[in-house]
């Protein structure tokens, strides 16, 4: 199917008027070519000023969203750092406990060696083989 041409004989108007008419024809053409996406593109154009920049209201919303995201990131980071510090302290306590156990076991082993040496000396002196 052929689409009807959207060319019209326009009366001579000022440059701004011509641009407005051309923009209107472009919008109409967008509606005819892709009606599903036309509403989204028109909404985007309404939310931006003529240069394609966001308006002040959405800029404030972006700043608020950035601030909230920043605060949440700081809170999560603080929680993670606190958890890591807690783990470091727990690990240090466990290492201290294991060190004290090893020292006590080392003392026990040295005492057992002394007792073993005493028993060997006693057996050698008694002549029992």
TrEMBL record:
Residues 37-60 are annotated as: Disordered. Pfam families: DUF4577. Keywords: Membrane, Transmembrane, Transmembrane helix. The chain crosses the membrane at residues 65-89. InterPro entries: DUF4577 (IPR028099). This is LSME1 protein. It comes from the Eukaryota.
